[in-house]
Amino acid sequence: MSVLSASEIKDLGKVAVLFGGRSAEREISILSGTGVLQALQSKGVDAHAFDPAERSLGELAAEKFDRAFIALHGRYGEDGSLQGALEQLGIPYTGSGVMASSVGMDKITTKIVWLANGVSTPKYAVIDDGTDLDKVVAELGLPLIVKAPLEGSSIGITKVTRREELQAAVDLSRKYDARVLAEQFIEGREFSVPLLGTGPTARALPIIEIVAPEGKYDYQNKYFTDDTKYHCPAPLDADLTAAIQREVEKAYRALGCEGWSRIDVLLRESDQQFFLLEVNTSPGMTTHSLVPMAARAEGTSYEDLCVEILRSASLKIGKGKA
Q: Percent of the chain beyond pLDDT 70?
C-alpha cells in the first residue's frame, strides 16, 4: 500500500467515523471506531467521531462530511440500512453496498448464494415455528451448531451435543432473531481470511489460524482476553493456502462485496476439507482484530490500512452495482 502525500490526505476531505450504534455489538464497535479515528487523525486526516445512536444521520449532510468510514457492527450499520441512507445522502462510504451488506449480514441467505455458486459451506437447516427438531438432528447429526443468523461476534450461538439441549439453544438464538440457523458441526482447525478490494482486483490477505482456549472462540475470547492464540500466516502448506484463498475470493465476489471483508473458514481434521462459515462485511478494527493482523503480516501498519480502506470509500448505486 502506497503512502499518501499531504495533498492526497487533504483530498480525502472531512471524514465521519461511524461507530457505536444500536446493535448488540455496540461495545465492540466503539473499540473499533476509536482505533480507526485515532489512526486516521494520526495520518493527518480530518476525521471526526459520529455515533448514529446519539445523532441524526441528517447531520452528516448538514455538517458537509465528504466521506464516511463505517466502523459499525451488526444491525443498523452492517446490514444495508445505513448504506442505503448514505446513498440517499450522497456520502461515499467504506465497505460493501446495500445488497451485499444485507445478504452478507444474513447467514442463511449467504449460504443460499454460496451454494448456488459452488462455494463449500457446512450443511444447514432453518428452524422456525413448527420445525421438527428431531428431523434437524437426523439431517445434521450431533453435535451441531445453533446460531442467530443476523448477529455477529458469536452472539446467540450454542454448540449442541445432546438432543435435549437443542430447544434451549433455539430459545437463546430466538432472543435475537425469529428464524434460527442450525449448522453441521465441523471438527477441526479454525481460520479467518481478510480480503481487500473490489471485483476482479479483490484479494485475500494472509490466512490467520485461531487457537482459542478449549476450542471456544466466543465473545470473551475474541475481544477481552489474551488467551486466544493467532498464527499469521497460518501454518498450512502452499497448495492448501492457495486453495482456501481462491475459495474465499470466489465467495466474496459471489456476494458482491466491496472494499474489505473477512470470511471465517473451518478445516475438517478428518479429511482436510475446508468449509466457509460466514462473511463479515464490516470487520472489527480493535487491538484483537484480524484484518489489521493480516495486513501487518504483509508489512502494512494499522494506520496505513485505515487510510487505504478510507480511500476506497464510494457510492455504489448508479455505477452498475447494488
A: 93
